[in-house]
């Protein structure tokens, strides 16, 4: 008799905070990028994927914008319950980003003002 078991480890809660956000891109629903300072100088792009987003225009102009993603991760369900929180100066900080679905097409998201 052979007994097979699937990985059904515990669900782990994770969060990542990105401070010093200089640019926010919306590629398509649930797919976002932020540009943050790199430890080596310049900026690095961080992708936030498959999350429900909430935007707060609560950051004073003289302070840095920031973002946080929170999600659960398990062997059984993978990434789930993902939410992104963007703390920005104003909604004008939101920029359109490109997307590519291979043979299904590619394009650019336009921001509606």
What this model shows, in words?
The protein has 113 residues and is mainly β. It has one domain. Helix content is 0%, strand content 57%. The strands form three sheets. Strands 1-6-7-5 form a four-stranded mixed beta sheet, with no helix packed on it. Strand 9 (98-100) and strand 10 form a beta hairpin. The mean pLDDT is 84.
Q: What distinguishing features does this structure have?
A:
globular, mainly beta, single chain, 113 residues, four-stranded mixed sheet
Q: Helices, strands, pairings?
A:
Blueprint lengths: L11 E10 L1 E6 L2 E7 L5 E7 L2 E5 L8 E10 L3 E10 L6 E3 L1 E3 L5 E3 L5
Parallel strand pairs: 2-8, 5-7
Antiparallel strand pairs: 1-6, 2-3, 3-4, 6-7, 9-10
What's the quick description here?
With 113 residues, the chain is mainly β. 0% of the residues lie in helices and 57% in strands. It has strands at 12-21, 23-28, 31-37, 43-49, 52-56, 65-74, 78-87, 94-96, 98-100, 106-108.
Q: Which band does the percent of strand residues land in? A: over 45%
Which structural category fits the helices and strands? mainly beta
Identify the strand order in the major beta sheet.
Answer: 1-6-7-5
Low-confidence stretches: none
Q: Helix-strand pattern, N to C? A: EEEEEEEEEE
Helical content (DSSP H or I, runs of 4+)? under 10%
> What kind of sheet is the major sheet?
4 strands, mixed
């Amino acid at each position: 008799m052979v007994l097979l078991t699937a990985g059904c480890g515990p669900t782990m809660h994770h969060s990542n905070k990105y401070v010093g956000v200089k640019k926010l891109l919306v590629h398509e629903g649930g797919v976002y990028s932020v540009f943050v300072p790199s430890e080596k100088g310049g900026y690095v792009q961080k992708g936030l994927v498959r999350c429900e987003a909430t935007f707060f225009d609560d950051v004073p102009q003289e302070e840095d914008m920031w973002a946080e993603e929170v999600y659960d991760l398990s062997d059984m369900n993978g990434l789930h319950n993902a939410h992104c929180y963007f703390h920005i100066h104003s909604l004008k900080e939101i920029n359109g980003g490109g997307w590519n679905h291979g043979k299904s097409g590619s394009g650019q998201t336009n921001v509606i003002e």
